[in-house]
């Protein structure tokens, strides 16, 4: 596609439920990143994929968070047993190593609200 | 440790010039990015510096001094639509993000 897409754009869920967030990167981009941004705060790195493997999972805040990427394209971020502190905007970005700058291009984000 | 510092908030007047500073301490350096983020929207790429000096792109310019661990984003002829947060990010092994500077433009 022309840009990074994410779905759903908004998700409201009840505490304790599981949620799945989807990211579709720019076609041909091998690197994919998940971030979390709370209201008025900076970007919090969650996880990074190069192809289908995740060399850096250091940002995942707890074992309730997991992510996978299949076919070197679409990625899903799963949050199990959601808590109110999980409420945030979840941003996905993709980049290509071509040219060396590795600029990240962001999707519109998924706004997650845990009641 | 790794650290990126930016002012939290700045205010400027429409038509004026503003400089947003970013200082960094990272374990490696492979380039510095500036992104713009309007409220409720995703960040969008503005500039990339990997060598010392000034990169100009229209009304926006970005400067880098690697020896000083310092960069700035210069915005000229400010417009109301420039009201946004400006994020500085340094690429070492991964991209390390500053907390962003909220720029408020007044008429």
Written description of the protein model:
The complex is a heterodimer of chains A (115) and B (107). Chain A is mostly beta strands and 115 residues long. In chain A, 0% of the residues lie in helices and 49% in strands. Chain A contains no helices and eleven strands. In chain A, strands 2, 4, 5, 6, 9, 10 and 11 form a seven-stranded mixed beta sheet that branches. A four-stranded antiparallel beta sheet of chain A has the order 1-3-8-7, with no helix packed on it. Chain A starts with a strand and ends with a strand. Chain B has 107 residues and is mainly beta. In chain B, strand 9 and strand 10 form a beta hairpin. In chain B, the strands form two sheets. In chain B, strands 2, 4, 5, 9, 10 and 11 form a six-stranded mixed beta sheet that branches. Chain B has a five-stranded antiparallel beta sheet with strand order 1-3-8-7-6, with no helix packed on it. Chain B contains no helices and eleven strands. The model of chain B has no long low-confidence stretch (mean pLDDT 94). The interface between A and B is medium-sized, with 17 and 17 residues.
Major sheet summary line of chain A: 7 strands, mixed
Number of strands of chain A: 11
Order of helices and strands of chain B: EEEEEEEEEEE
Estimated share of beta-strand residues of chain B: over 45%
Q: Tell the overall outline of chain B.
A: globular
Residue stretches of chain A low in confidence (pLDDT < 50, at least 5 long) are none
Percent in strands of chain A: over 45%
The chain pair forming the largest interface, with residue counts per chain, is: A-B, 17 and 17 residues
Mean pLDDT of chain B: 94
Mean pLDDT of chain A: 91
Low-pLDDT sequence parts of chain B: none
Number of helices of chain A: 0
Oligomer: heterodimer
* Helix content percent band of chain A: under 10%
Number of DSSP strands of chain B? 11
End-to-end Cα distance of chain A, whole Å, is 33 Å
- Gyration radius of chain A, rounded: 13 Å
Structural category of chain B? mainly beta
Please bin the fraction of helical residues of chain B.
under 10%
